[in-house]
Design brief:
By secondary structure, the protein is an alpha+beta fold. 43% of the residues lie in helices and 28% in strands. Strands 1-8-3-6 form a four-stranded antiparallel beta sheet. The protein has a four-stranded antiparallel beta sheet with strand order 2-7-4-5, with no helix packed on it. α4 crosses α5.
Length: 336
């Protein structure tokens, strides 16, 4: 049985609980049930009732979905510190995919009704969960072909809708011109006036459509390997500015008064190669916590790799056999 202290420390490293005091996290840790699964054992199957929410403590899982006439496809692989099952619980429908252990694994789970009660009690927990859930939903719709087979999206967003409203405000105001020309036509019966009204309306509509496309073609992405700013024009090009997580130097958030009111802002990620801005993204603090969590995992993984290399080098110098191990999934420092 894993102790309450270990469970609490484990949860404190997950972005969902970043803003909680230790006493509240400990209370949640006390609700968790420890479950063990062997390799290739299903945690739940597609179509099953969504009755529990899961955290991966040790091991890992894969998410697979069976589609009519298309067979089975793998959606993602998850590592220690990841969680799953929330989308079906929030939507109150059955699971749309199966989750299968990829190795002997230990999970923590909590019943769906207790999980929903926690979301009501802690609004910031719900906000953090919504960011991750919305990202997963959007990622499944877009399905970027350039992602690597072992790459998992943790955050994906466009600019906040307030930026769309700003982009469309000028075309909407400009509609006054064709309206006035149309009114003048009814007064003067001038063909030139109605022709000008129609032409002006078409040009303004095209302007509005272009502004909408320009708003929607920026995607801000965090995976388990890198951060990406993707500028995309469908059918034209994909332009990516990206950096590995290991090159991150700092993560900061900037908001103005309207951003604080409507919960959007800029997440500035400084790396060795430059700055990657996530501009005007919804819920910027939750996005920043997600980036920091993945960055921390990467640093801990690199530290373990360095320690293993040093240990093997010492064994070589001492004439001992060097044991080779398969690469381990990234885990939290608290899991050591």
């Amino acid at each position: 049985m894993i102790s309450l202290e270990t469970r609490t420390a484990f949860l404190q490293h997950i972005h969902l609980f970043h803003d909680m005091i230790e006493e509240d996290v400990a209370a949640i840790a006390g609700l968790l049930k420890e479950e063990k699964f062997v390799a290739d054992e299903p945690v739940f199957r597609q179509g099953a009732e969504a009755d529990r929410f899961y955290f991966i403590f040790r091991g890992g899982v894969k998410i697979v979905q069976t589609l009519p006439n298309k067979g089975e496809r793998q959606i993602a692989e998850l590592d220690p510190g990841d969680y799953f099952g929330e989308q079906a619980i929030l939507a109150k429908h059955r699971h749309t995919a199966s989750v299968v252990a990829t190795q002997d694994s230990t999970m923590f789970s909590i019943p769906a009704d207790q999980f929903r009660a926690l979301l009501k009690k802690f609004p910031r927990l719900r906000a953090a969960l919504d960011v991750a859930s919305d990202s997963r939903t959007l990622a499944r719709k877009l399905r970027f072909k350039w992602l690597r087979p072992d790459e998992v999206i943790y955050f994906l967003a466009r600019k906040h809708e307030v930026q769309l409203a700003k982009a469309l405000s000028a075309p909407i105001i400009a509609l006054v011109i064709p309206i006035l020309l149309a009114a003048y036509f009814f007064l003067s019966r001038s063909f030139l006036a109605i022709f000008g009204a129609g032409l002006t309306f078409i040009l303004i509509a095209l302007w509005g459509v272009w502004n909408y496309i320009d708003w929607g073609n920026d995607y801000y992405i965090l995976t388990n390997q890198r951060i990406i700013w993707l500028e995309r024009v469908i059918g034209v090009y994909d332009s990516r500015q990206e950096a590995p997580l290991s090159t991150i130097l700092s993560v900061g958030v900037e908001t103005d008064q309207s951003g604080r009111l409507l919960d959007y802002g800029n997440v500035n990620v400084r790396t060795y190669t430059g700055r990657i801005p996530f501009n005007h993204v919804p819920r910027p603090y939750e996005a920043a916590h997600l980036i920091e969590e993945q960055w921390t995992r990467t640093k801990h993984s690199a530290t373990r790799t360095e320690r293993e290399a040093m240990r093997n080098e010492l064994r070589r110098k001492m004439g001992l056999t060097v044991e080779t191990k398969p690469p381990e999934p990234r885990e939290k420092e608290s899991l050591q």
